[in-house]
TrEMBL record:
Limits of the Major facilitator superfamily (MFS) profile domain: 18-463
Gene: mdtD
Entry keyword set: Cell membrane, Membrane, Transmembrane, Transmembrane helix, Transport
CDD domains: MFS_LmrB_MDR_like (cd17503)
Pfam families: MFS_1
Protein name: Multidrug transporter subunit MdtD
Source organism superkingdom: Bacteria
Source organism per UniProt: Stenotrophomonas capsici
Entry membrane topology: Multi-pass membrane protein
Subcellular location: Cell membrane
Amino acid sequence: MSNAVSSPLPTGNAHKPLLWLVSLAIFMQMLDSTIVNTALPAMARSLGESPLQMQSVVFSYALAVATFIPASGWIADRFGTRRTFMTAIILFTLGSLACALSPSLQWLVAARVLQGIGGAMLLPVGRLAVMRTVPREQFLSAMSFIAIPALIGPLLGPTLGGWMVEVASWHWIFLINLPIGLIGLVAALRIMPDHYGQQKHRFDLAGYLMLAFGMVALSLALDGVSGLGSAHALVILLAVIGIAALAGYWLHAANSRDALFPLTLFHVTSFRIGILGNLFSRIGSGAMPLLIPLLLQVGLGMSPMRAGMMMIPVALAGMAAKRAAVSLVQRFGYRRILMINTVCVGVAMAGFALIDGGQPVWVQLVLLTAFGAVNSMQFTVMNTVTLRDLDMEQASSGNSLLSMVMMLATGFGAATAGSLLATFGTHLVGHGATAALHATFICVGAITLSSTLVFWQLPENRPHPKAVEEVAE
Protein backbone atom coordinates (compact mmCIF):
# COMPACT_ATOMS: atom_id res chain seq x y z
CA MET A 1 0.00 0.00 0.00
CA SER A 2 1.32 3.44 -0.93
CA ASN A 3 1.14 6.55 1.15
CA ALA A 4 -1.61 8.94 0.12
CA VAL A 5 0.87 11.79 0.03
CA SER A 6 4.61 12.02 0.32
CA SER A 7 4.71 15.22 2.39
CA PRO A 8 2.64 16.72 5.21
CA LEU A 9 -0.53 18.58 4.28
CA PRO A 10 0.10 22.33 4.14
CA THR A 11 -2.00 24.63 6.27
CA GLY A 12 -2.96 28.30 6.13
CA ASN A 13 -1.44 30.03 3.12
CA ALA A 14 1.13 27.30 2.53
CA HIS A 15 -0.95 25.80 -0.27
CA LYS A 16 -1.24 29.09 -2.25
CA PRO A 17 1.77 28.26 -4.53
CA LEU A 18 0.00 25.04 -5.55
CA LEU A 19 -3.19 26.96 -6.31
CA TRP A 20 -1.23 29.40 -8.49
CA LEU A 21 0.45 26.52 -10.34
CA VAL A 22 -2.87 24.83 -11.09
CA SER A 23 -4.25 28.21 -12.13
CA LEU A 24 -1.35 28.62 -14.55
CA ALA A 25 -2.15 25.25 -16.11
CA ILE A 26 -5.80 26.19 -16.52
CA PHE A 27 -4.72 29.59 -17.85
CA MET A 28 -2.67 27.89 -20.57
CA GLN A 29 -5.63 25.78 -21.62
CA MET A 30 -8.14 28.62 -21.51
CA LEU A 31 -5.83 31.00 -23.37
CA ASP A 32 -5.42 28.38 -26.08
CA SER A 33 -9.14 27.68 -26.41
CA THR A 34 -10.22 31.33 -26.49
CA ILE A 35 -7.51 32.33 -28.96
CA VAL A 36 -8.50 29.41 -31.19
CA ASN A 37 -12.17 30.38 -31.20
CA THR A 38 -11.41 33.97 -32.18
CA ALA A 39 -9.07 32.85 -34.96
CA LEU A 40 -11.37 30.22 -36.52
CA PRO A 41 -12.52 32.43 -39.42
CA ALA A 42 -8.90 33.34 -40.23
CA MET A 43 -7.90 29.66 -40.04
CA ALA A 44 -10.73 28.76 -42.39
CA ARG A 45 -9.57 31.32 -44.98
CA SER A 46 -5.95 30.19 -44.70
CA LEU A 47 -6.79 26.49 -45.02
CA GLY A 48 -9.49 26.91 -47.66
CA GLU A 49 -12.37 25.79 -45.45
CA SER A 50 -15.81 27.21 -44.62
CA PRO A 51 -15.87 29.12 -41.30
CA LEU A 52 -19.18 27.43 -40.42
CA GLN A 53 -17.52 24.01 -40.73
CA MET A 54 -14.55 24.62 -38.44
CA GLN A 55 -16.07 22.96 -35.37
CA SER A 56 -13.71 20.00 -35.88
CA VAL A 57 -10.83 22.12 -34.51
CA VAL A 58 -12.72 22.55 -31.22
CA PHE A 59 -14.43 19.17 -31.32
CA SER A 60 -11.27 17.09 -31.85
CA TYR A 61 -9.53 18.64 -28.84
CA ALA A 62 -12.52 18.20 -26.54
CA LEU A 63 -13.08 14.62 -27.69
CA ALA A 64 -9.41 13.71 -27.19
CA VAL A 65 -9.49 15.14 -23.67
CA ALA A 66 -12.72 13.33 -22.81
CA THR A 67 -11.36 10.04 -24.20
CA PHE A 68 -8.11 10.07 -22.22
CA ILE A 69 -9.39 11.61 -18.98
CA PRO A 70 -10.73 8.26 -17.64
CA ALA A 71 -7.15 7.01 -17.41
CA SER A 72 -5.80 10.19 -15.77
CA GLY A 73 -6.91 9.34 -12.24
CA TRP A 74 -5.37 5.87 -12.35
CA ILE A 75 -2.14 7.20 -13.87
CA ALA A 76 -1.86 9.89 -11.17
CA ASP A 77 -2.54 7.36 -8.41
CA ARG A 78 0.03 4.94 -9.80
CA PHE A 79 2.85 7.27 -10.87
CA GLY A 80 2.22 10.30 -8.65
CA THR A 81 0.68 13.68 -9.32
CA ARG A 82 4.02 15.44 -9.90
CA ARG A 83 5.29 13.13 -12.64
CA THR A 84 1.87 12.95 -14.32
CA PHE A 85 1.37 16.72 -14.21
CA MET A 86 4.78 17.40 -15.74
CA THR A 87 4.18 14.86 -18.51
CA ALA A 88 0.86 16.56 -19.27
CA ILE A 89 2.54 19.95 -19.63
CA ILE A 90 5.14 18.49 -22.02
CA LEU A 91 2.51 16.83 -24.23
CA PHE A 92 0.31 19.92 -24.30
CA THR A 93 3.24 22.14 -25.24
CA LEU A 94 4.44 19.78 -27.99
CA GLY A 95 0.88 19.60 -29.31
CA SER A 96 0.80 23.40 -29.46
CA LEU A 97 3.99 23.41 -31.52
CA ALA A 98 2.52 20.80 -33.88
CA CYS A 99 -0.61 22.94 -34.31
CA ALA A 100 1.50 25.94 -35.29
CA LEU A 101 3.30 23.88 -37.93
CA SER A 102 0.13 22.33 -39.43
CA PRO A 103 -0.19 22.84 -43.22
CA SER A 104 -3.82 21.64 -43.52
CA LEU A 105 -7.01 21.18 -41.52
CA GLN A 106 -6.41 17.44 -41.22
CA TRP A 107 -2.95 17.98 -39.72
CA LEU A 108 -4.33 20.67 -37.43
CA VAL A 109 -7.02 18.33 -36.12
CA ALA A 110 -4.41 15.61 -35.50
CA ALA A 111 -2.21 18.09 -33.61
CA ARG A 112 -5.21 19.17 -31.53
CA VAL A 113 -5.64 15.53 -30.55
CA LEU A 114 -2.06 15.49 -29.23
CA GLN A 115 -2.85 18.64 -27.29
CA GLY A 116 -5.92 16.91 -25.95
CA ILE A 117 -3.94 13.98 -24.61
CA GLY A 118 -1.88 16.40 -22.54
CA GLY A 119 -4.92 18.39 -21.53
CA ALA A 120 -6.64 15.19 -20.41
CA MET A 121 -4.14 14.91 -17.57
CA LEU A 122 -3.34 18.59 -16.99
CA LEU A 123 -6.58 19.90 -15.51
CA PRO A 124 -7.87 16.83 -13.61
CA VAL A 125 -4.48 15.99 -12.07
CA GLY A 126 -4.00 19.60 -10.99
CA ARG A 127 -7.45 19.68 -9.42
CA LEU A 128 -6.83 16.29 -7.80
CA ALA A 129 -3.68 17.68 -6.14
CA VAL A 130 -5.79 20.55 -4.78
CA MET A 131 -8.46 18.15 -3.49
CA ARG A 132 -5.86 16.09 -1.63
CA THR A 133 -3.98 19.10 -0.29
CA VAL A 134 -6.57 21.65 0.76
CA PRO A 135 -8.69 20.98 3.89
CA ARG A 136 -12.36 20.34 3.11
CA GLU A 137 -13.62 23.48 4.85
CA GLN A 138 -11.40 25.53 2.50
CA PHE A 139 -12.37 23.65 -0.67
CA LEU A 140 -14.95 26.12 -2.01
CA SER A 141 -12.57 29.04 -1.55
CA ALA A 142 -9.75 27.05 -3.21
CA MET A 143 -11.97 26.26 -6.21
CA SER A 144 -12.85 29.94 -6.53
CA PHE A 145 -9.17 30.92 -6.20
CA ILE A 146 -7.95 28.68 -9.03
CA ALA A 147 -10.81 29.87 -11.23
CA ILE A 148 -10.11 33.61 -10.89
CA PRO A 149 -6.53 33.63 -12.30
CA ALA A 150 -7.69 31.16 -14.94
CA LEU A 151 -10.15 33.73 -16.24
CA ILE A 152 -7.24 35.93 -17.27
CA GLY A 153 -6.87 33.51 -20.21
CA PRO A 154 -10.33 34.34 -21.62
CA LEU A 155 -9.65 38.00 -20.87
CA LEU A 156 -6.44 38.10 -22.90
CA GLY A 157 -7.21 35.35 -25.39
CA PRO A 158 -9.75 36.93 -27.74
CA THR A 159 -7.98 40.29 -27.95
CA LEU A 160 -4.52 38.74 -28.20
CA GLY A 161 -5.76 36.27 -30.80
CA GLY A 162 -7.39 38.98 -32.88
CA TRP A 163 -4.25 41.11 -32.71
CA MET A 164 -2.00 38.19 -33.71
CA VAL A 165 -4.22 37.27 -36.64
CA GLU A 166 -4.14 40.86 -37.94
CA VAL A 167 -0.42 41.64 -37.47
CA ALA A 168 1.05 38.16 -38.04
CA SER A 169 -0.85 34.90 -38.68
CA TRP A 170 -3.00 32.39 -36.82
CA HIS A 171 0.03 30.11 -36.30
CA TRP A 172 1.26 32.38 -33.50
CA ILE A 173 -1.81 31.71 -31.36
CA PHE A 174 -0.35 28.28 -30.65
CA LEU A 175 3.26 29.39 -30.28
CA ILE A 176 2.25 31.55 -27.31
CA ASN A 177 1.80 28.33 -25.31
CA LEU A 178 5.49 27.42 -25.56
CA PRO A 179 6.90 29.90 -22.99
CA ILE A 180 3.90 29.36 -20.70
CA GLY A 181 4.45 25.61 -20.82
CA LEU A 182 8.15 26.03 -20.01
CA ILE A 183 7.35 28.21 -16.99
CA GLY A 184 4.75 25.71 -15.80
CA LEU A 185 7.19 22.81 -16.14
CA VAL A 186 9.86 24.55 -14.06
CA ALA A 187 7.30 25.55 -11.43
CA ALA A 188 5.88 22.02 -11.23
CA LEU A 189 9.33 20.68 -10.34
CA ARG A 190 9.36 22.85 -7.21
CA ILE A 191 5.72 23.17 -6.21
CA MET A 192 3.59 20.19 -7.27
CA PRO A 193 3.14 17.72 -4.36
CA ASP A 194 3.61 14.05 -5.16
CA HIS A 195 0.35 12.39 -4.14
CA TYR A 196 -0.28 8.69 -4.70
CA GLY A 197 -3.39 6.54 -4.37
CA GLN A 198 -4.08 4.93 -1.02
CA GLN A 199 -4.30 1.54 -2.70
CA LYS A 200 -2.91 0.09 -5.91
CA HIS A 201 -5.49 -1.15 -8.38
CA ARG A 202 -5.01 -2.79 -11.75
CA PHE A 203 -6.03 -0.69 -14.72
CA ASP A 204 -9.54 -1.51 -15.92
CA LEU A 205 -8.59 -1.92 -19.57
CA ALA A 206 -11.85 -3.59 -20.65
CA GLY A 207 -13.93 -0.89 -18.99
CA TYR A 208 -11.76 1.88 -20.44
CA LEU A 209 -12.08 0.52 -23.99
CA MET A 210 -15.87 0.28 -23.73
CA LEU A 211 -16.17 3.76 -22.24
CA ALA A 212 -13.79 5.39 -24.72
CA PHE A 213 -15.36 3.66 -27.70
CA GLY A 214 -18.85 4.66 -26.57
CA MET A 215 -17.86 8.33 -26.19
CA VAL A 216 -16.07 8.45 -29.54
CA ALA A 217 -18.95 6.75 -31.38
CA LEU A 218 -21.59 9.05 -29.91
CA SER A 219 -19.47 12.14 -30.56
CA LEU A 220 -18.79 11.16 -34.16
CA ALA A 221 -22.48 10.45 -34.67
CA LEU A 222 -23.39 13.93 -33.46
CA ASP A 223 -20.62 15.59 -35.43
CA GLY A 224 -21.47 13.47 -38.46
CA VAL A 225 -24.73 15.32 -38.97
CA SER A 226 -22.71 18.25 -40.32
CA GLY A 227 -18.97 17.77 -40.16
CA LEU A 228 -18.36 14.31 -41.60
CA GLY A 229 -20.80 14.41 -44.45
CA SER A 230 -21.91 10.94 -43.35
CA ALA A 231 -25.01 9.15 -44.55
CA HIS A 232 -27.90 9.05 -42.10
CA ALA A 233 -27.52 5.28 -41.79
CA LEU A 234 -23.92 5.59 -40.60
CA VAL A 235 -24.84 8.29 -38.10
CA ILE A 236 -27.60 6.11 -36.64
CA LEU A 237 -25.25 3.10 -36.56
CA LEU A 238 -22.59 5.05 -34.65
CA ALA A 239 -25.18 6.36 -32.18
CA VAL A 240 -26.61 2.90 -31.45
CA ILE A 241 -23.17 1.30 -31.10
CA GLY A 242 -22.06 4.13 -28.80
CA ILE A 243 -25.08 3.70 -26.53
CA ALA A 244 -24.53 -0.08 -26.46
CA ALA A 245 -20.86 0.41 -25.48
CA LEU A 246 -21.80 2.77 -22.63
CA ALA A 247 -24.49 0.34 -21.44
CA GLY A 248 -21.90 -2.42 -21.53
CA TYR A 249 -19.57 -0.33 -19.39
CA TRP A 250 -22.34 0.31 -16.86
CA LEU A 251 -22.95 -3.43 -16.48
CA HIS A 252 -19.20 -4.08 -16.33
CA ALA A 253 -18.66 -1.47 -13.60
CA ALA A 254 -21.46 -2.98 -11.50
CA ASN A 255 -19.52 -6.26 -11.29
CA SER A 256 -15.92 -5.02 -11.11
CA ARG A 257 -13.99 -4.02 -8.00
CA ASP A 258 -11.43 -2.08 -10.04
CA ALA A 259 -13.77 -0.14 -12.34
CA LEU A 260 -12.45 3.20 -13.58
CA PHE A 261 -15.55 4.90 -12.18
CA PRO A 262 -17.15 2.72 -9.49
CA LEU A 263 -20.92 2.95 -9.41
CA THR A 264 -20.67 3.68 -5.69
CA LEU A 265 -19.82 7.24 -6.73
CA PHE A 266 -23.44 7.66 -7.70
CA HIS A 267 -24.55 6.77 -4.18
CA VAL A 268 -23.43 10.31 -3.26
CA THR A 269 -26.49 12.43 -4.05
CA SER A 270 -24.68 15.70 -4.74
CA PHE A 271 -22.20 13.96 -7.06
CA ARG A 272 -24.92 12.12 -8.99
CA ILE A 273 -26.96 15.27 -9.58
CA GLY A 274 -23.90 17.44 -10.19
CA ILE A 275 -22.52 15.13 -12.89
CA LEU A 276 -25.80 14.97 -14.81
CA GLY A 277 -26.35 18.71 -14.40
CA ASN A 278 -22.83 19.43 -15.69
CA LEU A 279 -23.43 17.26 -18.74
CA PHE A 280 -26.61 18.95 -19.92
CA SER A 281 -25.74 22.47 -18.83
CA ARG A 282 -22.32 22.42 -20.48
CA ILE A 283 -23.64 21.31 -23.87
CA GLY A 284 -25.08 24.78 -24.30
CA SER A 285 -22.06 26.49 -22.74
CA GLY A 286 -19.72 24.44 -24.92
CA ALA A 287 -21.37 25.81 -28.06
CA MET A 288 -20.95 29.48 -27.10
CA PRO A 289 -17.14 29.84 -27.60
CA LEU A 290 -17.70 28.68 -31.18
CA LEU A 291 -20.87 30.70 -31.86
CA ILE A 292 -20.00 34.11 -30.38
CA PRO A 293 -16.85 34.75 -32.52
CA LEU A 294 -18.76 33.58 -35.60
CA LEU A 295 -21.62 35.97 -34.81
CA LEU A 296 -19.27 38.92 -34.29
CA GLN A 297 -17.01 38.28 -37.28
CA VAL A 298 -19.16 36.48 -39.84
CA GLY A 299 -22.59 37.79 -38.81
CA LEU A 300 -21.69 41.39 -37.89
CA GLY A 301 -18.55 41.74 -40.01
CA MET A 302 -16.20 42.76 -37.18
CA SER A 303 -12.43 42.44 -37.52
CA PRO A 304 -10.72 39.74 -35.40
CA MET A 305 -9.20 42.44 -33.19
CA ARG A 306 -12.50 44.18 -32.50
CA ALA A 307 -14.30 40.86 -31.95
CA GLY A 308 -11.64 39.92 -29.43
CA MET A 309 -12.04 43.18 -27.56
CA MET A 310 -15.81 42.60 -27.39
CA MET A 311 -15.07 39.47 -25.32
CA ILE A 312 -13.28 41.41 -22.56
CA PRO A 313 -16.53 42.16 -20.64
CA VAL A 314 -17.33 38.44 -20.63
CA ALA A 315 -14.12 37.60 -18.79
CA LEU A 316 -14.28 40.61 -16.43
CA ALA A 317 -17.84 39.79 -15.43
CA GLY A 318 -16.83 36.16 -14.97
CA MET A 319 -14.04 37.12 -12.59
CA ALA A 320 -16.43 39.21 -10.50
CA ALA A 321 -19.03 36.44 -10.42
CA LYS A 322 -16.51 33.90 -9.12
CA ARG A 323 -16.14 35.93 -5.93
CA ALA A 324 -19.87 36.55 -5.61
CA ALA A 325 -20.70 32.86 -6.02
CA VAL A 326 -19.33 31.92 -2.60
CA SER A 327 -21.41 34.42 -0.62
CA LEU A 328 -24.55 33.75 -2.65
CA VAL A 329 -24.31 29.98 -2.14
CA GLN A 330 -23.66 30.48 1.56
CA ARG A 331 -26.78 32.63 1.86
CA PHE A 332 -29.23 30.83 -0.43
CA GLY A 333 -27.84 27.29 -0.84
CA TYR A 334 -26.67 25.32 -3.87
CA ARG A 335 -30.10 24.25 -5.11
CA ARG A 336 -31.71 27.69 -5.25
CA ILE A 337 -28.69 29.33 -6.87
CA LEU A 338 -28.37 26.64 -9.54
CA MET A 339 -32.09 26.68 -10.34
CA ILE A 340 -32.20 30.46 -10.78
CA ASN A 341 -28.80 30.84 -12.43
CA THR A 342 -29.39 28.05 -14.97
CA VAL A 343 -32.49 29.88 -16.17
CA CYS A 344 -30.45 33.08 -16.43
CA VAL A 345 -27.75 31.32 -18.48
CA GLY A 346 -30.28 29.83 -20.90
CA VAL A 347 -32.08 33.14 -21.37
CA ALA A 348 -28.76 34.96 -21.90
CA MET A 349 -27.75 32.45 -24.59
CA ALA A 350 -31.06 32.80 -26.42
CA GLY A 351 -30.73 36.58 -26.08
CA PHE A 352 -27.85 36.59 -28.57
CA ALA A 353 -30.50 36.02 -31.24
CA LEU A 354 -31.47 39.68 -30.74
CA ILE A 355 -28.03 41.00 -31.69
CA ASP A 356 -27.76 42.61 -35.11
CA GLY A 357 -25.57 45.16 -36.82
CA GLY A 358 -27.99 48.04 -36.34
CA GLN A 359 -27.80 48.08 -32.54
CA PRO A 360 -25.68 50.40 -30.41
CA VAL A 361 -22.50 48.70 -29.27
CA TRP A 362 -23.42 49.20 -25.59
CA VAL A 363 -26.45 46.91 -25.99
CA GLN A 364 -24.21 44.13 -27.28
CA LEU A 365 -21.73 44.72 -24.45
CA VAL A 366 -24.48 44.50 -21.82
CA LEU A 367 -25.59 41.11 -23.14
CA LEU A 368 -22.01 39.83 -23.30
CA THR A 369 -21.37 41.02 -19.73
CA ALA A 370 -24.55 39.42 -18.39
CA PHE A 371 -23.72 36.13 -20.08
CA GLY A 372 -20.15 36.17 -18.73
CA ALA A 373 -21.36 36.69 -15.15
CA VAL A 374 -24.03 34.00 -15.02
CA ASN A 375 -22.04 31.46 -17.03
CA SER A 376 -19.01 31.83 -14.75
CA MET A 377 -21.13 31.45 -11.63
CA GLN A 378 -22.73 28.35 -13.12
CA PHE A 379 -19.37 26.63 -13.58
CA THR A 380 -18.14 27.44 -10.07
CA VAL A 381 -21.26 26.26 -8.26
CA MET A 382 -21.75 23.15 -10.42
CA ASN A 383 -18.17 21.94 -9.96
CA THR A 384 -18.17 22.56 -6.22
CA VAL A 385 -21.48 20.83 -5.51
CA THR A 386 -20.34 17.83 -7.58
CA LEU A 387 -17.10 17.22 -5.64
CA ARG A 388 -17.83 18.56 -2.15
CA ASP A 389 -19.13 15.34 -0.56
CA LEU A 390 -16.62 12.83 -1.98
CA ASP A 391 -14.26 11.18 0.50
CA MET A 392 -10.53 10.73 -0.08
CA GLU A 393 -10.96 7.26 -1.62
CA GLN A 394 -13.50 8.58 -4.13
CA ALA A 395 -11.64 11.81 -4.92
CA SER A 396 -9.50 10.54 -7.81
CA SER A 397 -12.18 8.68 -9.78
CA GLY A 398 -14.87 11.29 -9.03
CA ASN A 399 -12.64 14.16 -10.13
CA SER A 400 -11.65 12.33 -13.33
CA LEU A 401 -15.29 11.57 -14.15
CA LEU A 402 -16.24 15.23 -13.69
CA SER A 403 -13.38 16.33 -15.94
CA MET A 404 -14.41 13.77 -18.56
CA VAL A 405 -18.03 14.93 -18.50
CA MET A 406 -16.94 18.58 -18.75
CA MET A 407 -14.87 17.98 -21.88
CA LEU A 408 -17.34 15.53 -23.40
CA ALA A 409 -20.12 18.10 -23.00
CA THR A 410 -17.84 20.75 -24.55
CA GLY A 411 -17.29 18.48 -27.54
CA PHE A 412 -21.01 17.75 -27.74
CA GLY A 413 -21.63 21.50 -27.60
CA ALA A 414 -19.29 22.23 -30.50
CA ALA A 415 -20.72 19.36 -32.54
CA THR A 416 -24.28 20.42 -31.72
CA ALA A 417 -23.54 23.99 -32.77
CA GLY A 418 -22.02 22.78 -36.05
CA SER A 419 -24.99 20.50 -36.75
CA LEU A 420 -27.54 23.22 -35.97
CA LEU A 421 -25.69 25.74 -38.12
CA ALA A 422 -25.62 23.29 -41.01
CA THR A 423 -29.33 22.52 -40.60
CA PHE A 424 -30.45 26.13 -40.30
CA GLY A 425 -28.08 27.17 -43.07
CA THR A 426 -29.92 24.75 -45.36
CA HIS A 427 -33.46 25.70 -44.31
CA LEU A 428 -32.82 29.45 -44.09
CA VAL A 429 -31.19 29.83 -47.48
CA GLY A 430 -31.36 33.45 -48.58
CA HIS A 431 -31.45 34.82 -45.04
CA GLY A 432 -27.67 34.74 -44.60
CA ALA A 433 -25.36 33.31 -41.95
CA THR A 434 -26.73 35.65 -39.27
CA ALA A 435 -30.19 34.05 -39.39
CA ALA A 436 -28.67 30.56 -38.95
CA LEU A 437 -26.59 31.82 -36.02
CA HIS A 438 -29.61 33.44 -34.34
CA ALA A 439 -31.65 30.25 -34.59
CA THR A 440 -28.76 28.23 -33.19
CA PHE A 441 -28.44 30.54 -30.16
CA ILE A 442 -32.11 29.97 -29.33
CA CYS A 443 -31.65 26.20 -29.51
CA VAL A 444 -28.57 26.06 -27.27
CA GLY A 445 -30.37 28.30 -24.77
CA ALA A 446 -33.25 25.82 -24.68
CA ILE A 447 -30.81 22.93 -24.14
CA THR A 448 -29.32 24.74 -21.14
CA LEU A 449 -32.75 25.50 -19.68
CA SER A 450 -33.54 21.77 -19.68
CA SER A 451 -30.80 21.15 -17.09
CA THR A 452 -32.93 22.88 -14.44
CA LEU A 453 -34.88 19.62 -14.29
CA VAL A 454 -31.72 17.97 -12.97
CA PHE A 455 -30.72 20.65 -10.45
CA TRP A 456 -34.27 20.66 -9.10
CA GLN A 457 -33.44 17.27 -7.51
CA LEU A 458 -30.69 18.76 -5.30
CA PRO A 459 -31.33 18.76 -1.56
CA GLU A 460 -31.19 22.06 0.30
CA ASN A 461 -27.56 22.21 1.47
CA ARG A 462 -24.96 24.89 2.04
CA PRO A 463 -21.14 24.91 2.27
CA HIS A 464 -19.21 24.66 5.50
CA PRO A 465 -19.30 28.06 7.27
CA LYS A 466 -15.49 28.26 7.32
CA ALA A 467 -15.45 28.33 3.52
CA VAL A 468 -16.71 31.89 3.51
CA GLU A 469 -14.24 32.87 6.25
CA GLU A 470 -11.38 31.63 4.07
CA VAL A 471 -12.56 33.66 1.09
CA ALA A 472 -12.77 36.79 3.22
CA GLU A 473 -9.15 36.47 4.37
